[in-house]
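User: I'm curious whether this sequence folds into something compact or stays loose and floppy. Could you predict its structure so I can see for myself?
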Amino acid sequence: MLSKARAARLRPLLDSLRDSRPWAERIAADPVEFPHRFEDPRDVEVVALLSAALAYGRASLFKPKIEQVLARLGPAPAVRLKELTVKALPRLLDGFVYRFNLPADVGVLLMGMGACLRRRGTLEDVFLDARATAGDWRGALSGFARRVREAGDERAIVKALGPVRGLDHLLPLGGGAAKRLSLYLRWMVRGPDEIDFGVWGRVSPADLVIPLDTHVARLSTWLGLTSRATHGWAMADEITASLRALDAADPVRYDFVLCHLGMSGACPVRPEKANCRRCPLVSECRVGRRLVRD
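Assistant: Here's the prediction. I'll summarize afterward.
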């Protein structure tokens, strides 16, 4: 975790980074693009969960798959999901395959969200139910995924669409860093601002854990936000603890800019001196500081 002295030095630098570029222009390169197409909070939360669940691998590969499902759901996806039947799934998911996931995997997610909306009105209530019985935040994420999965009629869906294959990857019940579920919670809880939606008003941003992808892990290591080498929940938790030293009320406020600093190529795996010289974080980055000194 960061010392108070390092936190005091790093926070204005991260603020400078956040203010240095029109980061909202990066929305088109991010799965958050899809829920930004909708205004109704119920549409936002279901499209966001579908988008986050499928946001693995290269964006150029998973984004067309999300587009395919959204085009078939139509302009009011929450209403469509509440009315969705197993009988309608084969046409809705015809031809869908993305890496680990087959039509039945996505069918469980869609039917589960629809059932949750019918029973509870909002996915926020489903998360709050899970949190009330969980021992910690990680358990709340897993419990939420379990409730969505159980709300779908998996047996009937398998009969209609064939076997599931990557359901544990699409809606994980534990293990790993829970990156995509943490990303979904960030979208729902933070804000509203130009990136995140803030449509879940009964969950505090202070409780969020950073969505740990390779870019955030690498930059966090270089900035001294974590001393861990393994990309897992313990690393995500440690990075978040360091970020709480910067802003206890909103620890993941810098997630988007750190992620896209790496995604955009401005901070590549093999750092470039010219980029480091322009970076507001260089004085606190062990890699950049060494590079510009050489």
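Summary: The chain has two domains: 1-26+201-294, 34-175. The mean pLDDT is 96.
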